[in-house]
Amino acid sequence: MVTKAAAALTSPVTAYLDRTLGVGELAWSTCPEGPLPAYLDHAYTVVCTDLLGTACAFAFRRTSDVPSPSSTSRQIDHLASILRRPVVLVESVIPSWRRKRLIERRVAFVAPGTQLYVPPLGIDLRDGRHRRPTDAIDADRPFPPAAQVVLLDLLLARDRHAHDSHAIANRIRYSVMSISRAARTLERAGLIDRPTRGRNKLLSLRGAPREVWANALPHLTSPVRARYAAPPGAFADAPDAGETALARHSLLAAPATRTVAVSGEAWSKQEGRYPALGAAFEPEPGSVIVEVWTYPPDSLADGPTVDPLSLFLSLGDADDPRIETAREALLEVLA
């Protein structure tokens, strides 16, 4: 038996598992092992059941703060080692970008009503939601660069009121026509509204910044197109990017090699002069790592570094826990 609070959590999971797998009524109980470490007990409510003949634990997230997929993977692995059974993560909504990374790390999960992935049992049912016929935006299709820049500009704006498209065009240095096309894309995705003021079309977020960000993430991609190595002192006026920028936003020590970001247009004047970074090439000490971005990095920058949201997206492949923690802190700008 479980408490009433735990029963309220397990009820939608039972209904979903029965609907998709025909498991019937599951017998939930308190897991038999001793107390969990404090950080896991704070993060999860954990209950156990028998699913298709296998003893499993389901970890329901207690807090609204969702750690990165790699941090989540470490937590679930730790739980599994303590409980000595497979652990299934339960989250109400799992965006496609997060789902992809959880699957890469073989983290079992369920989002009641929409998604189920339990590799120890050979279960993989994803994206069970039914879209309205009018939904014109594919759930996993990246936004064009202009649409991503417009959305990030709105998310970063301290003034949360509606913004005139001409003002946005001046800020991010895109044409008004490009802003209009981007706005239509964002509106179809359900992320913004476009009220009218006189003859002007305004743009406003459809919801709180964190909510819009979470809904937009499946469509957002790293702005980094390629990375190159340049000699010391090159691109001195370019904004800091990568771990160099992250160190400015956190307590991390600055890396020995500076990373900067430039636009494709700026890089085209230098293309062919510097080697590309890759598995077979490492930058020499003192050199500069140059990230070539799909949109001008200074269009959103407010200071010596690229903007925090683009920086977050550019560091998505980091596998260092320190970097991941500092990266997650960048989202405080959405508060």
Question: What's the arrangement of secondary structure elements?
Answer:
Blueprint: H1 4-21, E1 29-30, H2 38-43, E2 44-51, E3 54-61, H3 69-83, E4 87-90, H4 96-104, E5 109-111, E6 115-118, E7 123-125, H5 145-156, E8 163-164, H6 165-172, H7 176-188, E9 192-193, E10 196-197, E11 200-205, H8 209-216, E12 224-230, H9 242-248, E13 258-263, H10 264-268, E14 288-293, H11 308-314, H12 321-329
Parallel strand pairs: 3-4, 4-5, 13-14
Antiparallel strand pairs: 1-2, 2-3, 5-6, 6-7, 8-11, 9-11, 10-11, 12-14
Helix pairs in contact: 5-7, 6-7
> How would you characterize the largest beta sheet?
7 strands, mixed
Q: Could you give the distance between the termini?
A: 39 Å
- Numbering strands along the chain, what is their spatial order in the largest sheet? 1-2-3-4-5-6-7
Unreliable parts: 128-137
CATH architecture classification name of the largest domain? 3-Layer(aba) Sandwich
Gyration radius over CA: 23 Å
Level-1 CATH class name of the largest domain: Alpha Beta
Q: How many structural domains does the protein architecture include?
A: 3
In which range does the helix fraction lie? 25-40%
**Helix tally?**
12
CATH fold description of the largest domain: Trna Endonuclease, Chain: A, domain 1
How many DSSP-defined strands?
14
Average pLDDT? 85
> Strand-and-helix sequence, N→C?
HEHEEHEHEEEHEHHEEEHEHEHEHH
What class do helices, strands and sheet pairing give?
alpha+beta
Q: What share of the residues does DSSP label as strand, in percent?
A: 15-25%
Based on Cα principal axes, name the global outline. Answer: globular
